[in-house]
Amino acid sequence: MTVTASARRKARHYAMQALYQWQIAGASLNTIEAEFHADNDMSKTDVEYFRDLFHGVAKNLDEVEAAYIPHLDRGVEELDPVSRALLRMASYELKSRIDVPYKVVINESVALAKKFGPTDAYKFINGILDKTAADLRAAEVAADRQQ
């Protein structure tokens, strides 16, 4: 399968939902992943990317959270579950998937926050990820701002 933007978008969509479920239910990663494959049509999804995001966040949770927590104006436990899942996923992407431009990571996360998050959560997500990207991808952000 050729990896398309829409296949990546679907992968992020499902990964965010899987992370949400993992946070709420606490089931094993493999159980949740198997449910997603059984319950969803993954034929137009970048399944490898879904798996990387989902398992990558869980395996590197302390590092992932350390990337965005300094920018929060509240405790991480006060975040709604959708925002927490999105911040975790996007921080992982910013940290580990340098093949993906930081603007794509932020834009995709904002779009998911608009769709699934509480009212105006997308503004909060955008602000936190903008600061997180400046930390994790300083050269890329600086080059982008000079254009």
Outline the structure in words.
It comes from Microbulbifer halophilus. This is Transcription antitermination protein NusB. Keywords: RNA-binding, Transcription, Transcription antitermination, Transcription regulation. Involved in transcription antitermination. Required for transcription of ribosomal RNA (rRNA) genes. Binds specifically to the boxA antiterminator sequence of the ribosomal RNA (rrn) operons. The chain has eight helices and no strands. Helix 1 runs parallel beside helix 3 (47-59) and helix 4 packs across helix 5 (81-96). The protein is an all-alpha fold and 147 residues long. The termini are far apart.
Task: Summarize it.
With 147 residues, the chain is an all-alpha fold.
Give the SSE map.
Layout: H1 5-25, H2 29-39, H3 47-59, H4 61-68, H5 81-96, H6 102-116, H7 121-136, H8 138-146
Helix pairs in contact: 1-2, 1-3, 1-5, 3-5, 4-5, 5-6, 5-7, 6-7, 7-8
